[in-house]
Amino acid sequence: MHSKYLLTFIFSVFFLAILPAQWQPSGLDLLPDTQRVASISVLSEEVVWGISYYDRTPAPAPSTTIPWVFHTKNNGEDWEVYPILDAEGRICQDIFGINDSTAWITTNGLTADSLRGLFKTVDGGESWTEKFDGAAGGGFIHFFDDTNGIAIHDKFITHTIDSGENWANLSPLSLPLGAAETSFYTAANNALATAGDTLWFGTTQGHVLRSHNRGIDWEVLETPFESKDIIVSTAFRNSQEGMIISYATLFQGAVLFSDSTKIALTFDGGDTWELADTLPDFKLNCMTVIPGSEYKFLGVTNGLSTISSDTAQTWQYFSYRPYNAVEFFSSELGWVGNSQTSVDFPSIMYKWEGIVSSNNSITKSEVKINISPNPFSESFQFEMNIIDFEKYKKDDLTLDVFDILGKKILSKSLTSAQFNIQFPSISNGVYFYILKTKNDLLSNGNLISHR
After folding, report:
1. Which pairing describes strands 219-221 and 208-211: parallel, antiparallel, or unpaired?
2. Is 424 left (phi over 0), alpha (psi -120 to 50) or beta?
3. What CATH number was assigned to the domain covering residues 3-356?
4. Could you read off the pLDDT of 11-52 as tens digits, one per residue?
C-alpha cells in the first residue's frame, strides 16, 4: 500500500543500541512550535550548527515565512537561536558550518525560478548576508577546505575558490540528469555524501551522481533500484563503502511513500551496487556513518532510530523520539535533530555520548494484535492476544498514535486486552501506532482514516 503525500519526512520504527549512553535532549524549548530541524553541521566536540523551518510551508513560501538557525559552542550546554530575517519568505535547506561564528545556508522560496540563494553569517547567526543569488543556492552546500566550495540544486551548480566571496555558475548540463530528474531528501546533510574530493548524491530516478573532482565533472551510476525509486539518503564511510536508501517512488509528478525501505550497498565507490539481502519493513528516513565504530551505518526517521554492523543485513533498535538530520563527529559523539517540536517533543536536538554497543539493545518483540476496521472512519477496535497482554501488562503497556508529522495524538495505558478507540473528528490520512512497554517495542504499523 502506498500513501500519496508531498512530505519531507515519514514516521517509522527504529532503535539505537549504545552503552552506557543514550540520546539526551538538548536545547529545550528554544524553537517555536512546529519547527523541524532540516539540516545540521557538526564541526567539533564543541561546535554544532543547525537550521529549521515550518514543515508545512506551502509552495510558494509565504512572504512571512522565517527560517531559524541555532548553534552551540560548548557541546550543547548553551544554544544561541536566531530567526533568519534576511531570508524571510524562504525556507532553509542546508547548512555548512565553517567555525563557531561563521556558517553558510542554502535558501529556497519554493518557487519555480526565483528566491534561491546562499547566505553567510560571521557573527554566530545573528545576521546574514546573501552572497549568491541563483538557482544553485536552493539545495546542498559543501566546502572542501577554507577556500573551495560547491552548491547544488536540481541541474544547477555553482563553485567558489575564494571562500565564497565570488561564486561562478556552471552550465545546467554540468549535472547529467534526466528531463524530470532531480534530488529529493528529508535532511540535506544526509543526502550529499563526500570523501575527499569525491561527491555522491541520489536522484528521483534511482540513479547516483558522482564527481571525483569537486563537482566539475559528473557521471551517472546505475543502481539496482527502479527508475521510479527516489533515493532519499546517501552515506559513504570512505571512498569505497557506501549505502543508499529509498522508501518512495515518483508517479506522475507525485511522491508515493511505501511501507518499507530499499537499501543498496557499494564496495567500489559506486561503480556497482547490490541490494541488501534483508530489506527492512520500515521507512528509513535518513542515515549517516559512525566513524571508527563497528556499527557502520546509523539510520533515523520521524519516530525512532537503528544501527547496522553487518552491511545492512540486520538492524538493532532503540528509542522512541522523533528524529531528522543526523551526524556523528566520532564513534562516541553524535547529534540528531527533532523532526518537529511539540509539547510531546520540545527539544531542538538530541546528543549521543558513549560507546556504541549492542549490550543494551531494546528488542522488538512481535505480539499478535488485531485492529479493525482499518481503514476506519471514526473509531477502531484494538485487540491484543490475551497471553501477550498478561505477559506485558505489568511493564507500562502503552499504545501511542502519531499523525504524519510525528505529533502524538493519543497515548493510552492498556488495562485490558481489548478496547475501542474513538476519533470522531480525525482528518483523513495516514497515522502510525506504537505498542510498547518501558523496555520493548511490541508492535508498530499504519492506521488509515477515511471518511
Report:
1. antiparallel
2. alpha
3. 2.130.10.10
4. 333 322 323 346 777 877 778 777 888 999 999 999 999 999
Using CA atoms, how far residue 81 sits from 199, 225, 304, 316, in Å, is: 31, 40, 25, 34
**Cα–Cα distance, 94 to 242 (Å, whole number):** 21
197-213: pLDDT as tens digits: 999 999 999 999 999 99
The secondary structure element, H or E, covering residue 388 is helix 386-392
Q: Give the number of residues written for the chain.
A: 451
The angle formed by the CA atoms of residues 258, 264 and 268, to the nearest 5 degrees, is 160
Residue carrying C-alpha cell 577546505: 145
**Where does the pLDDT of residue 347 fall: very low under 50, low under 70, confident under 90, or very high at 90 and above?**
low
H-helix or E-strand containing 386?
Answer: helix 386-392
User: Sign of the CA dihedral 213, 189, 434, 353?
Assistant: positive
Grid cell at residue 161 = 575558490
Cα–Cα separations (whole angstroms), residue 310 to 294, 315, 422: 9, 9, 43
Q: For residue 145, what are the contacts with CB-CB under 8 A and spacing of at least 6? A: none
Instruction: State the Cα–Cα distance between residues 338 and 50, nearest whole angstrom.
Output: 11
| Degrees to nearest 5, angle at CA 291 with 320 and 186 | 50
How, if at all, do strands 156-160 and 168-170 pair?
Answer: antiparallel
Please answer whether residues 49 and 43 qualify as being in contact, where contact means their C-beta atoms are separated by less than 8 angstroms: yes
Q: Report the distance separating Cα 1 and Cα 144, nearest Å.
A: 42
The pair phi, psi for residue 306, each rounded to 5°, is: -155, 160
Residue 97 amino acid letter: G
Q: How far apart are CA 349 and CA 324, in angstroms?
A: 9
**CA distance between the termini of the chain:** 18
pTM attached to this predicted model: 0.78
- CB neighbours (10 Å) of residue 304? 26
Amino acid identity of residue 287, one-letter, is M
| Least confidently predicted of 86-90, 299-303, 418-422, 446-450 | 299-303
Do residues 153 and 137 lie in contact, with contact meaning Cβ atoms separated by under 8 Å?
yes
**Nearest alpha carbon to residue 242 among 199, 277, 283:** 199
The CATH number that domain 369-449 falls under is 2.60.40.10
Q: How do the domains of the chain map onto residue ranges? A: 3-356, 369-449
Respond yes or no on whether the N-terminal peptide bond of residue 60 is cis (omega within 30° of 0): yes
Give every CB contact of residue 434 below 8 A, 6+ residues apart in sequence: 13, 303, 320, 399, 400, 402, 441, 443, 444
Q: Which three cell numbers stand for residue 194?
A: 563526500
